[in-house]
Amino acid sequence: MSYPGVELFQTSAKGRGLKATRKFETGQAVLKQEPYAYAVMSSHIDVVCHYCLCAPGQPGAPVEDLHRCTGCKFAQYCTKECQKKAWPEHKQECAAIKRITPGKPVDQTRLVGRILWRRKREENLNGEKKDGKENDEKKVELVKIEELEDHLSKRNAEEKEAIDEKVYSFGDYFTYDEMPDSDEEMAHLFAIIDCNAIGLNDHRGVQTIGVGIYPGISMLNHDCSPNCVAMNNGPRLEVRALRVIQPGEELCISYIDSLETTEKRREKLKLQYYFDCECDTCTKGEELENLKHALVSEDIKEESVKYINQFSKDMLKRIHKTKQNQNWERMCNQTLGTLAQQDCVIADTNVLKIAMLNHAVEVQSFLRRQEPALEYAERVAAAYEKLLPPVHPTLGMYLMRLGVIQWQIQKTEAAVATLGRAASIISKTHGDDHGMFKELLGLIHQCKMEAHMSKGAQREFRMAKKKAGLKLPA
Ligand SMILES: [Zn+2]
Ligand SMILES: [Zn+2]
Ligand SMILES: [Zn+2]
Predict the structure, then answer these.
(1) Nearest ligand (C-alpha, residue 61)
(2) In terms of domains, do 279 and 178 share one?
(3) Range 148-154 contact pairs with CB under 8 angstroms and sequence separation of 24 or more
(4) Domains contained in the chain, number
(5) I need a surface site. Which of 157, 162, 178, 401 has the fewest CB within 10 A?
(6) Annotated Gene Ontology MF terms (predicted)?
């Protein structure tokens, strides 16, 4: 990864980091990087193309079905072209998977395998390069993969044992002959994957479908109110500016959900990334933090707050179970019952309230009660606008969802406006050539067409579309 405007530097308290050497406008791409290696998650091996990560049969996918690699019968591709492009990365993996069939390699094993095979290919290429041949796979990197942080020294005995276990079983897959000699080197690699691998989402940002390693982008430190966001477009990761960035500013992303309370964020960062966050939002972000605990009025008694907090937490657990059992009517009753009590005590920006409102939108949509779903979705969107900066992926994606609900109940003009706002945010957070942005443009176009039709014509149009098998957005 070499990119104009970014350089590696030594921070005062957070080790290495990346900083801007030029000005970036909001929404501008700061870095784009192809993965050093990536793998489809086990949960999605039969659903997405193992090369481009598209999901056949879904809107925006080039084809309806995947076809299997005849060698390992594990890898699947959307087109012959993807299969051909994947072959250099898959060739040795294909043999390794066959070797352990009917066993299936876990995600981390496949990822580490790909890293080691790529390293070997690069070593060979370097050898060839001396003979005057070109080498296009190896590009200049800001850092080498081995130089990434592994936090091994901060891990407890149990965590270390889990890593040793992975190293131990890796030999069956990779073959012991080819494995690096030292177990320390292997443990280092597995530990690097733990703290540096980045989850890759489907184009709607709903599900994590893959995992990749991006040595340059891994150098970005965390901030709870970051100036950048990293989004994947297929396997490629793109970092964009969430606000104007001046030369000399450190570039940061958020490793976790920014909507959580300070206590929760710091807890997660410590557990997963082994550091105590001392960012401005954690140390001085009182105003934002107060919103996340906000009450409906100042007169609410402390006992009422205590009661509703405990009650909400208990109900969230119960609703989670009801949801797992797919008992939607019951989930609806539990959610609305809790909301009725919450409404007397805590405000919509309170994290416990947002969680409940989100459940309400989900369950009402599922039960096809779009009118109440819309009412709750509008409240969530209003809360997000108070809690998030004006350009933020969560806000953009939520407005998209809100616009779709408005459209479904034929509030087409409102839908056009909401989807338009979503598009202006998503073009900045995801970029104009991202699948989500393209899908949004398609939605806006359809919506505008319907907005100009009479109600009767709209109904006919929808029925014709349904017959033709076109999918309405979820
Ligand atoms: Zn593909
Ligand atoms: Zn294969
Ligand atoms: Zn923080």
Answers:
(1) 1
(2) no
(3) 148/192, 148/195, 148/196, 148/215, 148/218, 149/15, 149/192, 149/195, 149/196, 150/188, 150/191, 150/192, 150/194, 150/195, 151/191, 151/194, 151/195, 151/273, 151/274, 152/187, 152/188, 152/191, 154/274
(4) 4
(5) 157
(6) histone H3K4 trimethyltransferase activity; zinc ion binding
Distance 94 CA to ligand 2 centre (A): 4
What's the pLDDT tens digit per position in 379-403?
A: 999 999 999 999 999 999 999 999 9
> 70 with 128, same domain?
yes
Residue 3 belongs to some domain of the structure: yes
**Minimum mean pLDDT range among 92-101, 130-139, 330-339:** 130-139
Q: For this complex, say whether ipTM is above 0.85.
A: yes
**Mean per-residue pLDDT over the chain, rounded:** 91
Q: Are residues 301 and 408 in the same domain?
A: no
Are 348 and 256 contained in the same domain?
A: no
Residue 106 maps to a domain: yes
CA distance 54 to 66: 10
Q: At residue 466, does pLDDT exceed 90?
A: no
Q: How do strand 228-233 and strand 198-201 relate by DSSP bridges? A: unpaired
Distance, CA 286 to ligand 3 centroid (Å)?
12
Amino acid (one-letter) located at 309 = N
Measured in angstroms, how far is the CA atom of residue 227 from the centroid of ligand 3?
Answer: 13
Token pair listed for 224: 């709870």
Look up the CATH number of the domain holding residue 403: 1.25.40.10
In a shared domain, residues 134 and 76: yes
At how many degrees (to 10) do helices 351-366 and 370-387 cross? 150
Q: Which ligand is nearest to the CA of 275?
A: 3
Domain shared by 65 and 1, yes or no: no
How sure is the predictor about 474, in pLDDT bands with cuts at 50, 70 and 90? very low
| Ligand of minimum distance to the alpha carbon of 14 | 3
What residues sit around ligand 1, an ion, with C-beta below 5 angstroms?
49, 51-52, 78, 82
Q: Examine residue 102 and say whether the peptide bond preceding it is cis (omega within 30 degrees of 0).
A: yes
Please indicate, yes or no, if residue 149 is contained in any of the structural domains.
yes
- Say if residue 24's pLDDT is above 60: yes
65-101: pLDDT as tens digits:
999 999 999 999 999 999 999 999 999 999 999 999 8
Label residue 455 by pLDDT band (50, 70, 90): confident
End-to-end CA distance of the chain: 37
User: In terms of domains, do 340 and 420 share one?
Assistant: no
* Range list of β-strands (E), 62-141: 67-68, 76-77
- List the beta strands (DSSP E) in 65-197: 67-68, 76-77
- For 250-298, the pLDDT digits (tens) are 999 999 999 999 999 999 999 988 899 999 999 999 999 999 999 999 9
Verify that 173 and 102 share a domain, yes or no.
yes
The first and second tokens of residue 17, run together, are: 């980091």
**Which residue range(s) make up the domain with 148?**
38-201
Nearest ligand to the C-alpha atom of residue 270: 3
